[in-house]
Amino acid sequence: MSEERLLIRAAERGRTRQRGLEAWHSFSFGHFYRPDRFGFASLRVLNEDRIAPGAGFPEHGHANMEIVTVVLSGRLRHRDSLGHEETIAAGDAQWMGAGHGIRHSEFNPSAEEPTHLLQLWLQPARSNLPPAHAVRRGEGGFPHGATVLAVQAGEAENALPLRLDARVAMLRLDPHERYALADRGRHWHWLQLVEGGLTEAAGEALAAGDGLGLRAEQVALRAAEDGALLLWVAMGLH
Fold first, then answer.
1. Is 233 exposed, middle or buried (0-12, 13-18, 19+ CB in 10 A)?
2. Which residue segments constitute the domains of the chain, with CATH numbers given?
3. The pTM is what?
């Protein structure tokens, strides 16, 4: 069972810098190891990546994770061992249910434009399911309000089908806007601020790159003077 509140400031994240890649890790990942940070509720990995033109991740494998990739700007080229080959762009989201095993590669196909993305891994409700893949197309960005990207299979027609009790959404708030987060019995929340600021988030002020996990029936938010764009993950029992 996770602790019921976890605040990770942007500067407290792990950082990977290598040729063509700069990545920030909210939880233990790769060479970044923190014994007190192995995820929050069903969320196991949350990375923010910036990939230079032509760079990326060569073919590698995953198993028993639900992996959601959200493109914030630029494009990402995906190929996998199931035969899928997709390019996802700003506003798009991709789901890969790794199941009993899948291999894939991810590259920035542009010769000029960098790619900025968020990638999160969630623990599925069952292990060793068949691997699967799907893409949700956006409209070049995230409009005002909540944009649901992924949710437990069958709950929303246009969302990616997660194989656990969870919802993944992007939320854009206007300057000084108030908003209350709640999701039918999913009382574990992770907020990751991408742009702007929050003057109120369950008693905390958040800046870009900050993350907050907590257990609550409802989470009160208020955007700062430049508004806010954030990732919201709501999770049920885990």
1. buried
2. 5-235 (2.60.120.10)
3. 0.96
